[in-house]
Structures are given as structure tokens and as C-alpha cells.
Amino acid sequence: MSRTEAKRISVSLPREKSFKGLGGLSIKAKIISLILIVSITVLLISGAITAYSEYHSQKTELTNQLTSLSKLIGNRTTAALAFFDEKTGYENLSALAAIPNVKLACLYGADGSIFTSFTHQLSEGYTCGTSVAEHQLLLGKDKTLINADYNILDGSEVVGQIFLHSSYEPIYDRVFDRLMMIALNFVIGIILAVILASWLQKLISAPIEKIHDAADDIIAKNDYSIRAPKTTDDEIGRMASSFNRMLETIESKNKDLEEQIKRRKGAEVALRDMNTELEDRIEIRTIELARKNEELSEAMQVLEQAKDELVQSEK
Q1: pTM above 0.85, yes or no
Q2: Alpha-carbon torsion 209, 214, 219, 224, what sign?
Q3: Which residue from 121, 160, 233, 264 could staple onto 152, CB 3.0 to 4.6 Å apart?
Q4: Angle value at C-alpha 218, between 262 and 200, nearest 5 degrees
Q5: Residue 291 pLDDT > 70, yes or no?
């Protein structure tokens, strides 16, 4: 695979997206922000789960309480139904006035018609049906109350039926108290998360800042003998060791380069000396050659003169 193809493939691969808004922050700010985000998310999720669980738990508990009340009051009204004593039946239902969340109690006879009813004084708008069938129809339309019913028996014979209806107020009060506790835990958790994040960022960012300071010193002083301190044995410590090995390599290469420069300068000086010496030799040889040429010229003149004299003497 060629470099161009590899580069094209690397460019086409999707880049890992970082959290928006955190790219320009320092490591300290990133650590604190991420821990706070995780802590808030976990606290909110756990709080929502706790509140939801508390709601259903309280609803189940309130339903069980209403069922127990309906059995208790229903058994107490057996005689009133048997003797058609509406007053006693109402007095039995009136005992529910001590329980504010019970808004409505309906007592029906064996024939399914209304026998007596009790409505809490603060619960206007709640009424019983004239018959069991009508009351059950009303229950199907109204989802604002929690309901419980009980068949009243006289031996094995059904002599009546009682319906108790409670509001969601106890559940809401309980869930609200739990939400207040969750909110308090949320605030305490955030404070602890900030403290923990500040402590953790020192463990992570402090060694990195020392490496950064060492790099600044190297740039300012141009001294590659400076080393970054290794304070941990984790990834940051290994990064400091790698940084120091890189500095050792650069320092060694710089020393080799300085030696090469010194040798080159020495060679240049020697070459310059050799050139000077060669020039001196050439100059001396040139002078000697000129002198010898002059002597040779004089000798030639002497020979020419001797030749002329010889010719004259022969004539």
C-alpha cells in the first residue's frame, strides 16, 4: 500500500468526537467537569429510581392499609347490615374521620343498593353510587383515588360490600420527604465530587505540569541536559520517562553534531593552511622559474653572441 493510499484511508476514517465545549479547557477543568457531569447524572438517575420505587412502595402500602381497614370496618358493620341499622353503620364509617386521607367510604347492602356512606368534610365532590354497579362504573372513570373493597360475610352469606377510597396525599408527602432527602444527598454529593475532583486533578495534572515546565526550561535555556521529574509509575510516569529518553537522544545527537562541526572546522582550517602553503610554494616556484628563464635567456644571448663571433672568425 502506498503512502498516498494510506493517507487517503486515514483521512476517510471517522475521527473520535470529544465532548463539545471541553476541547479548549485545561486538564484540571476537564477532570472537574467530567467528574461533576458523571456525579450529577448518577445522582439524578439514582434519585429518580428511588423516588419511583418509593412511590410504588407507598402506593402498595396504602392499598394494603385500606384493605385492612375495609376488612376491619366491614366486620364491625355485619350486625348493622343484618338488622338494617343505618345509624350504627354510619357511626362505624365515621371512625374513618381520624384518617384524613380516607376521603370516601361507601357501604352497600346485600341487594347491591347504597346502605350508608361517609365523606370526609374536606372532600367535596366525592360521592357514592346508588348501587354497586354504578359505583364501580364511577371508579373506572375516576383515577384520582386509591380504592379498596371488601365483601362483608355473615357466616358464608354475603350481607354487604364496603368500598374505601383514599387520596394520594400520604404518598405524595412521603415521596416529597424522600425527594428532600435526595436533594440533600445531591448537594452533599456535588460538594464531595468537587473536593474529589480537585484532589484527583492534582494527581493527574500536577505531573503533567512538571513535564510542561521542564519543556519550557529546555526551550528558554536551550539546555537538553534538563530532565522531567518522574513522580508516578502510571501512564504519566511512563510519558515522563519517554520524554527524558527523547531528550537524551537529542542531547546525544547534538553532541555528535557538535563533534562533526568541530572536525569540519578543523578540516577547513587545515585545508586553508594547505592552500596557503601551496600558494606560497607556487609563488616561490614561479619566482625560481622566472629567474631560471632569465638565466636561460642570458645564456642564449651569450650563445648567440658566441655564434656570431665564431662566424666572423671563420670568415
Answers
A1: no
A2: negative
A3: 160
A4: 155
A5: yes
* Torsion angle (degrees, nearest 10) of CA 9, 10, 12, 14: 140
What is the grid cell recorded at 308?
A: 656570431
Hey, how many other C-beta atoms are within 10 angstroms of the C-beta on 305? 10
Question: Cα 183 to chain center, whole Å?
Answer: 22
- Comparing 184 with 123, the larger pLDDT belongs to 184
> Residue length, the chain?
315
> Taking CA 268 as the corner, what is the angle to CA 262 and CA 274, rounded to the nearest 5 degrees?
140
Per-residue pLDDT tens for 205-253?
A: 777 778 778 888 888 888 777 887 777 777 777 888 888 888 888 888 8
| Contact criterion met (CB below 8 Å) for 106 and 115 | no
All cell numbers assigned to 224 = 537538553
Q: Among residues 6, 133, 213, which one has the least CA distance to residue 227?
A: 213
C-alpha distances out from residue 150 to 15, 65, 144, 155, 281, Å: 66, 13, 20, 15, 135
For the range 124-127, what are the long-range contacts, defined as Cβ-Cβ under 8 Å and sequence gap of 24 or more?
126/165
Report phi then psi at 13, rounded to 5.
Answer: -70, 140
Neighbour tally for 67: CB within 10 Å: 15
